[in-house]
Amino acid sequence: MKIAIFNEDLLGIVKEDKVVDVSKAANWDTNNPESSFLYLVENYEQLKDNMEKEAETGKAYAIEDVFFKSPVPSTRKIWAAPVNYKSHQDEMNKMFNNAPRTIEEIALFLKSPESLSGPMDPILLPYKDRRTDHEAELGYVVGKKAKNVKAEEAENYIFGYFALLDISVRGNEERTWRKSFDTFTPIGPWIVTADEIDNPNDLKMTLWVNDEVRQDGSTKHLIYDCFKCFEVACDNMTLLPGDIIATGTPDGVGPIEAGDKVRIKIEDIGEFTVDVKHAEITEEVGATKA
In this protein, which residues make up the domain named Fumarylacetoacetase-like C-terminal (predicted)? Predict the structure, then answer.
């Protein structure tokens, strides 16, 4: 099932070129999508039959006419995987000489939940004089509370998968700071539930900036695959429904600038394109606008 949040926070199922409103079937409250999403994740097995029936008869919208929002409306935490492709380590060392170790030695890091954004929201660059890069990744959302779950069991705890952009300001600051600005984790275009993905560790992934292919890789080259990332994330730390894990990026990482369009496509998942703009700082401390 492809599950989307769209327009005025409606819950939809994507079927070919249509998005069907299944809010009623999922007891979805458009005024509180955050709580409704957690209810959906935790009760999906009981809800999915009614959702599928509603998808056959409910109000349908042409896919080109809807505004897709982040399919995870909010999250408690985002665990991200650094240097999880050997090819990415090689290119980072070639450009910056700053990736001497891989995920096997440095484990995961946290991104701010406030960096989460949707597949039609712009990326807002906080600096005009700092290099900011795109990183194409497969991401997924946790479906059940988990602690000390081994990789062999991890697939039973994953609700679904989506494409994810990990946007990164280059510099000497800690990863968490450089990757946590508002709009620095766009995800989408929807969630593909885990039961529809045969093998998340063998999916082709491509990223374009404007019309130029920048990244062309596959999750089969992950050092820690999706399930091993899950194991590391909940090693003596609790994962909760709605938490997000980003699995890392292959080689081809490069800079983006205001005016660019960044497109990501992952096999069996989908694709989305976001605009890149400069963030405009308002007089209110810490506030930004597009």
Answer: 77-276
**How high is the pLDDT of residue 107?**
92
Which residue range is the domain that position 162 belongs to?
A: 78-289
pLDDT digits (tens, 9 = 90+) for 12-67: 999 999 999 999 999 999 999 999 999 999 999 999 999 999 999 999 999 999 99
272: helix, strand or coil: strand
One domain, residues 167 and 223: yes
Residue at token pair 């991401």: 139
Give, as one character, the DSSP assignment of residue 128.
S
Encode 221-239: b = buried (16+ Cβ within 10 Å), e = exposed.
Answer: bbbbbbbbbbbbbbeeeeb
- Look up the CATH number of the domain holding residue 177: 3.90.850.10
Question: What residue type is 45 in one-letter code?
Answer: E
pLDDT digits (tens, 9 = 90+) for 104-129: 889 999 999 999 999 999 999 999 99
Name the domain count of the chain. Answer: 2
Give CA separation, 53 vs 4, 24, 50, 259, 275, in Å. Answer: 16, 11, 5, 42, 36
In a domain, 228, yes or no: yes
Pairing of strands 116-117, 185-193: parallel
